[in-house]
């Protein structure tokens, strides 16, 4: 989106339609000689068999500036899932390996960790990412870790290039880079960001104007994007949530572990399209409702860890503030959709906001009943202190 607007605490790297992919790739390729890049691809068996994954593999074949690729395969209980994934990434050569998180060897490692009091029992994207980071940490040459999802319908290497360049270019000094984009087809998508996270963060800023963390969250144009890059040091020191709070929890860890001037967000210059979660209003433990509850409780727990006191009255006020703010957002989205000739179902948007408002209350109950929650997976600094050879064992397992 060609604008110059900077969002408060976090540097925004815009797409001004002036950067040519070949030139950007040349810069990354040159910088990667001294700052090697490891790419994490968390994928499920179903996504591995879908068309976008084939496109991603084809594009990555020419991304010679990526030193190591770790395909972290989860939700894949059968040996055939693993074998098919290994066959699919064969064009990427020896630099690409599959780490089968449901396989017996990795499951054995998880059991050892659980017996030692390190909780990695919750399966999901968070655990897959954490395991892949361990794999990359075994190689001391890798300085930059990059992650993107594997269900991106319109994937091309420019996405990867723009994630890598802010982290590796010697003239820049960032430790974390988050992607942003517009999720649009013939209508607006990204309901959890548009209708929950953004208005909720605005409501929190009204209630807690002195909270720098809330201000930090408000600086991101798409805080739930699954694409980011970070330094080796942050990959080692950040804890990783194992539930749907992964993206917000990652931002909380970045806020805790690095200087804010070393955080940026980059425009991936596309109308981003990937699969959509079902709203499932009747099923509170699935789809977007489950995601919303996990995200909100992660925010509550992060604020509590920073000394913010939230009472029952606070949650009542927050719900009211959220509803008013979200309703104002609907008026803005309706105008945007009309001028851009997009379909816009205002009634469904209003219904979704009502459901998310209930999540604000439900998450408050979950938080009060369990203020600490299941907790994030411990960082790799702690794990390697207890199991010094664990990252190398992961590297030996991968094929």
TrEMBL record:
Its EC number is 2.4.1.266. The gene is gpgS. It comes from the Bacteria. This is Glucosyl-3-phosphoglycerate synthase. One of its GO terms (molecular function) is glycosyltransferase activity. InterPro entries: Nucleotide-diphossugar_trans. It is an enzyme of class 2 (transferase). Keywords: Glycosyltransferase, Transferase.
């Amino acid at each position: 989106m060609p604008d110059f607007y900077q969002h408060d605490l976090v540097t925004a790297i815009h797409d001004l339609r002036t950067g040519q992919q070949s030139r950007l790739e040349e810069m990354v390729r040159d910088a990667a000689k001294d700052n090697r890049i490891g790419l994490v691809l968390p994928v499920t068996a179903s996504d591995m068999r879908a068309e976008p994954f084939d496109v991603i593999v084809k594009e990555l074949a020419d991304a010679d500036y990526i030193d190591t690729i770790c395909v972290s395969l989860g939700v894949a209980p059968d040996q055939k899932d693993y074998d098919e994934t290994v066959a699919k990434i064969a064009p990427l050569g020896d630099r690409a390996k599959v780490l089968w998180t449901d396989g017996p060897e990795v499951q054995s490692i998880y059991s050892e960790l659980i017996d030692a009091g390190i909780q990695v029992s919750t399966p999901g994207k968070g655990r897959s990412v954490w395991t892949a980071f361990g794999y990359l940490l075994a190689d001391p040459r890798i300085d930059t870790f990059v992650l993107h999802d594997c269900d991106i319908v319109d994937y091309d290497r420019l996405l990867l290039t723009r994630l890598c360049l802010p982290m590796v270019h010697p003239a820049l000094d960032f430790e974390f880079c988050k992607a942003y984009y517009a999720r649009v087809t013939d209508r607006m998508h990204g309901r959890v960001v548009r209708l929950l996270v953004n208005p909720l963060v605005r409501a929190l800023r009204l209630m807690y104007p002195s909270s720098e963390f809330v201000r930090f969250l408000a600086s991101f144009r798409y805080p739930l994007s699954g694409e980011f890059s970070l330094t080796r040091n942050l990959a080692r020191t950040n804890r990783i949530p194992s539930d749907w709070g992964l993206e917000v929890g990652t931002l909380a860890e970045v806020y805790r572990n690095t200087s804010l001037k070393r955080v940026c967000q980059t425009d991936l210059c596309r109308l981003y399209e990937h699969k959509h979660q079902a709203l499932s209003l009747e099923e509170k433990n699935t789809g977007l409702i489950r995601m919303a509850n996990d995200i909100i409780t992660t925010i509550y727990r992060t604020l509590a860890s920073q000394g913010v006191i939230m009472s029952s009255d606070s949650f009542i006020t927050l719900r009211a503030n959220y509803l008013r703010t979200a309703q104002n957002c609907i008026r803005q989205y309706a105008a945007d959709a009309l001028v851009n000739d997009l379909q816009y179902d205002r009634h469904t948007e209003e219904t979704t906001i009502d459901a998310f408002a209930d999540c604000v209350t439900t998450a408050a109950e979950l938080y009060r009943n369990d203020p600490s929650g299941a907790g994030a997976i411990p960082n790799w600094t702690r794990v390697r202190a207890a199991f010094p050879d664990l990252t190398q064992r992961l590297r030996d397992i991968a094929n």
